[in-house]
Amino acid sequence: MKPMLKDCITKNNINDIESPCYVLNYESLQYNVKLLSSIAEQSGAKILVALKGYSFWREFGPIREYLHGATCSGVNETRLAYEEIANNSEAKEICVFSPAYKESQIKEIIKYATHIIFNSLNQYSNLAHIIKSKESIQIGLRINPMYSEVETDIYNPCVKQSRLGIIPEEFYKNIESLARKTNQESKEFFKEHFDGLHFHTLCEQDSAVLERTLEHVIKHFGDYIKECKWINFGGGHHITRKDYDIYRLIRIIKDFKKEYNTEVFLEPGEAVGWQCGDLIGEVIDIVENHGKVAILDISASCHMPDCLEMPYRPECYKISRQSCEIEDDLGIGIGEYQYRFGGPTCLAGDIIGDYSFSTPLNIGDRIAFCDMMHYTIVKNTTFNGIELPSLGVMKNGEFKILKRFDYNHFKDRN
Length: 414
Ligand SMILES: *Cc1c(COP(=O)(O)O)cnc(C)c1O
Hints:
Layout: H1 11-14, E1 21-25, H2 26-43, E2 46-50, H3 61-66, E3 69-72, H4 74-84, E4 93-97, H5 103-109, E5 115-118, H6 121-131, E6 138-142, H7 168-181, H8 186-193, E7 196-198, H9 207-225, E8 230-232, H10 246-260, E9 263-266, H11 270-273, E10 277-288, E11 292-296, H12 300-303, H13 306-309, E12 316-319, E13 326-328, E14 337-342, E15 351-357, E16 366-369, E17 390-395, E18 398-403, H14 407-412
Parallel strand pairs: 1-17, 2-3, 2-9, 3-4, 4-5, 5-6, 6-7, 7-8, 8-9, 11-14
Antiparallel strand pairs: 1-10, 10-11, 10-16, 12-13, 12-16, 14-15, 17-18
């Protein structure tokens, strides 16, 4: 069973946790990366953490120990991976993708990256000469297999007019035209200039979706896959979710590697930080307006942006100030004591959701929103001057504060 933060909160440590605070449960992270590492071992794939979703470098220990490296976008993430995952060395794979690089960015990125993936042949033609000054860097192209089962458009890179990945028609047209200039055959040109291909079309999905997606990847790009040293299957694999079919994933990777004789990379973000800790805040006030509205020191808008963007209603539990008793939210309209939770900003829509409990909520009670370590801290803002939550870790039953933010962080950004 996966260890969870809720089971580690006790009378002895609850008052050490300041509010608001993102609390990583170290053992949960360890559990996730060990599972990912065992899949890497059994399948032969290399697994990288996607820093877009999970950049909590203050406790990167398990990631350094168990994963093969990181996938990054742009200079800042690439440098972070080099400093904090590869320990300023060539020890790890640092894969970089950006929808478009500026020349100045590529010049920085080559100091840290092992793999650079381009989103167009245009970008390759304009920038490859800079990369070639560093021979060890491998070069890939992001392809768009024109197949995704993601239903929310803002997470679907295969919608019409998407800017993410080269569609087959453009791929063939541009490779042929470049090859013609050097009097080469297309595949010969590709093999000489590129090491791999990359696709990323999944979001919180199971390995069955990967299997169906691969059929489209192969249908459109199969001939070129044969010329690759590696294929990067992107992220969106919800591997650490309880009901994810890991055996199918292992089989898919093994079959693919055998058929095409290539290396396979996976680059999950969410699956690394999945259910690894909570955002803990407190009730500042409770007001009445056609029901009870609790105002918290946590904001949907500043601290849990996916609640509004996705949108979804996060699960939570309350921790009573007096007794430290923990009670799970019973759901909308079910428990006797019902509340709408809202944030401390002046935005009318800064509403987290509707919750209910079997006992009343009191000012000063703690509220913990579950599963808040991925796609939260990396997206936080200081909108409306709201404080950034502190960062802390629960390890061996003890809470440790890792970072506090102050006025200067707000002032610096405006
Ligand atoms: C966002 C992203 C990932 C990680 O996706 P998750 O859904 O967090 O697993 C991996 N690769 C690329 C290119 C991405 O844009």
